[in-house]
Amino acid sequence: MDDLTNGRSLAPTTSRAQRRGARTHRWRRDTVELAAVFLSVTAADLVAKIVVHGPEGPVVLATSAVMLLATALFHTWWAHRHLHGPPSPDTAAPPGEGAAELTGPLHDFEQTTLWRVRTTVEDSPGSLARVCTAFAEQQVNIISMQSHPLPTGTVDEFLVRAPLGLTRAELTRTVASAGGHDIWTDPADAHDLVDVPTHVLALATRTALDAAELPVALRQLFGRCTIRQFPGAGRRATAGLEGHVMRLPAPSGDLIELTRPHLPFTPTEFARAQALVELDTLLGPRVPQVKARLTMPAGADLTVRRADASDKEAALAMHGRCSPDTLRKRYHGPVTDAARYLDHLLDERHGQALAVEAADGRLVALGHLMWDDDSAEVAVLVEDAWQRRGLGLDLLRRMSALALEAGIDSVYAITQASNTGLIATMRKLSAPLDYQVEDGTLVITAHLAEATAELPAPWAGR
User: Cα separations (Å) of 440 from 249, 332, 412, 443?
Assistant: First the structure.
């Protein structure tokens, strides 16, 4: 794309006037060099006679050598300055001749930034070329491009590398001047450099390995969007696309609804989402068999692993061994129906659950990572007899690492303002924290991307 848009349109060409100027410049240079040769021969003959017949021959010879050395150094400096200096106005090619005229400002290509640009153009010959030419005039390099056909036009999506000084408003005006409308721009990063087919295949692989990855895959595929899942509602609903809302009935009977207020969905994106949902349904419930060994200071061996619906009975038994105060801190109030809570928390469609298991098979701690748009909620419950042994911090670090692997940079915990244990545990993540208190409820948000200490791998032993 770079060769087709920028390279060819800016390739230098040689005009008749430039060729005439080059011939004149060579003739003048040859004349000056010939005169310099005759002058050098005359000077050499004069110096030779003075050295041979004069009384101060050695002094004259030494002075001549110094002058020649100074002349050579001056010539070297002048030639370097001339070759690398900017061309003078009278030798520069006029507009329209030689190199193509750039209407945009000249920028420093050493400082660039990545942008994602989406615009709607007419479905007619030359519409894409006009946008590419407008980018080239502003020295914007097109990294990748994909088209989304519509009934009345085409949505073109670009990943571009623009000069650092080019603002979002200038980039939007550039696309608008080429006939684009409904323009959307957003800063990109190095992760967006992966081509679309590779990106979709990687998301499909993650979904195939873990059912809990479906919401994450959809969010990474479409950017910032809200994903809601309605159990049983898919049996009486049909798939549909209505601008900013996409509805996908899953064969399992659930209804998945995606909302993206800032940017409407396209039929191409709708087809990709349907393919991911159908793959998830075809493979059925699945949880990766991953676990890690934990060796406690007291000598007890524990195992941390992924939990699912089959762990409900063991989780209920652990709830029965927890004190009312522990349960109140975890659920922000009295627990009257722990079974209903666990049906939601152990459902892989809503996130990932981690369990700490003792050697006799009892669960002694549970951690929950629940997807929530661009963030994720974390929650930890540790049985009273196993508290203050680092299990809560271990689960919190593992869930934070899982969130980062899913492309989520922040996690938050909801608790009571009096829960000093959880507050102290969140601080140990070594990440900047935000605190919001309302009616005694505390929300602590950890910005993992800005953490000062690297999190261990999610399934590393301890």
Answer: 39, 10, 16, 10
